[in-house]
Amino acid sequence: MKYLLLILFICSTFPPHASYDGEKSIQTTTQAEAKEQVIHIQEVYKTVDTFKLRIDIFYTKQSFGKEKNTAIVFFHGGGWAFGSPSEFFTTCERYAKLGIVTFSVGYRLSVDNGITPSKTISPIECLMDAKSAMRWVRANAIKFHIDPDKLVAAGQSAGGQLALSTAMIDDYNEKSDDLKISSCPNAILLFSACVNTVEGWCDRLLDNRRAKIWSISPTHNIRSGLPPMIEFHGTDDEQVPIWTVQFFETSMKKEGNYFEQHTFKGRKHYLGDGNSKYSRYFDDEILKVTDDFLRKFNLLK
Known about the structure:
Elements: H1 2-13, H2 31-36, E1 38-48, E2 51-60, H3 61-64, E3 69-75, H4 89-97, E4 101-105, H5 123-139, E5 146-156, H6 158-168, E6 187-191, H7 200-206, E7 229-234, H8 242-254, E8 259-264, H9 284-296
Parallel strand pairs: 3-4, 3-5, 5-6, 6-7, 7-8
Antiparallel strand pairs: 1-2, 2-4
């Protein structure tokens, strides 16, 4: 009986088809599968006040076997007061499998115990965090096997405003940031992006700093020499009117900037509504166009 129990114990400990050499851990995946497997880690990119701000990183062993990879840094939406980095996780995984090292940023939100506006946090702090995150990624380029000159910022809704701010807003920087490191990306991906903050919700969140609303509005800080951008927007967007982006496009091109806009008739703020794969932000059709944009600027093979 004791020998039977011993055999059962061994079988349960070392499952069928697994190899074990006495020192290495059990390996149940093939080498090909291991290369494509997305590795997800998390690090703290900034500590400010009582906040430890975290960034999620996605990559494969195959991409870490190379140098000078492209990186995409994603900023979630939620009106500067809601949302989560997890909303971009499936997108991060998709691009990680394509050889891009991806990051999804957690930033301070303008909400205290479920109440907005926060007394201490506004969209200004959000964009300061976004710029800190970009600098942190660029400063860690060697560690994450990325090219500091192939850094892409991406965002949906208010996250789009944050992505734009990393390139367009110079006035606000965290005191702890190394300003010798640029926060400006080499390209920007925008999905239903807020390009004009001069509106009621942002005004409310700024509270007694509402006079600064112009200084964080991408539309009011356009200049020449900005990185190339692509933007996707629904004609029936109920949160960010399409005309604001059309006006932004016109102003950008007047300054000689590259701005590629794609509109979708009848779609609302969540371009992938009904498809939860990418948190309703978009769908595979939109991401394939995004891929073409990245290839155009040598950011994706």
